[in-house]
Amino acid sequence: MLEIACFEMTSAETALRSMADRIEFCTDLELGGTTPDFYEFLHLKRTFSKPVYVMIRPKGGPFYYSETEFIEMKKSIISFGEAGADGFVFGILTPQNEVDVQRNAELITLAAGIPCTFHRAVDRTADLDKSVETLIGLGFKTVLTSGGKKSAMEGKENLKQLIGKYSNQIEILIGGGVRSENVAEIKEFTGATSFHSSAILKYDTLASAAEIKDIKKLIS
């Protein structure tokens, strides 16, 4: 399974026309992704049939939020859900960088059965195993992770362990610098079956259809 992170419309349209299985739609590449424009999302849903997962993140920076920001997240879940979102991508931590059980549970309840992915906020937590077990208990369908390191290549030992322990309970989606030049090695080492990439080549800002094709062939 290949998910492409798309930070603007051109990349989203490229990915949805490509061999990708689904996209994660967001904005603000420089912030690591925030909640996208609602009307751009509607355009994608009306034009393409592939799944569009929506990032729910009101700001960049740390993954804990004020009450006002949390209310904004809840409103976004309801709005995008009613408009046909195929999945949600979010992750709320406490100020101590632990999974915020109560707030994440509230968002999962509001998602009303739409699959939820806990994003790379999990890599900020001190104990990955404990965090993944918490996410399973909360009902997350997927966790996006680089194994607690800056990149999937650096975190491949941890990723292998997570997949061995938990892949029958939650989808372990590997992200963090995943590209055609390293995805085969990551796949072979970890045993992973799900990958996440922006497919943006060096010195570029948009997803590359050729790169998406290459990654998909290498993981198939």
UniProtKB/TrEMBL annotation:
Pfam families assigned to the protein according to its UniProt record, in alphabetical order: CutC
SUPFAM superfamilies membership: CutC-like
Source species, domain of life: Bacteria
Keywords assigned by UniProt, alphabetized: Cytoplasm
Keyword Ribonucleoprotein in annotation: no
Subcellular location: Cytoplasm
Protein's UniProt keywords contain Ion transport: no
Family under the similarity heading: Belongs to the CutC family.
Protein name, as recorded: PF03932 family protein CutC
HAMAP family per UniProt: CutC (MF_00795)
Signal peptide: none
InterPro entries the record matches: CutC-like (IPR005627), CutC-like_dom_sf (IPR036822)
Lineage of the species this protein comes from: Bacteria, Pseudomonadati, Bacteroidota, Flavobacteriia, Flavobacteriales
Species name: Kaistella pullorum
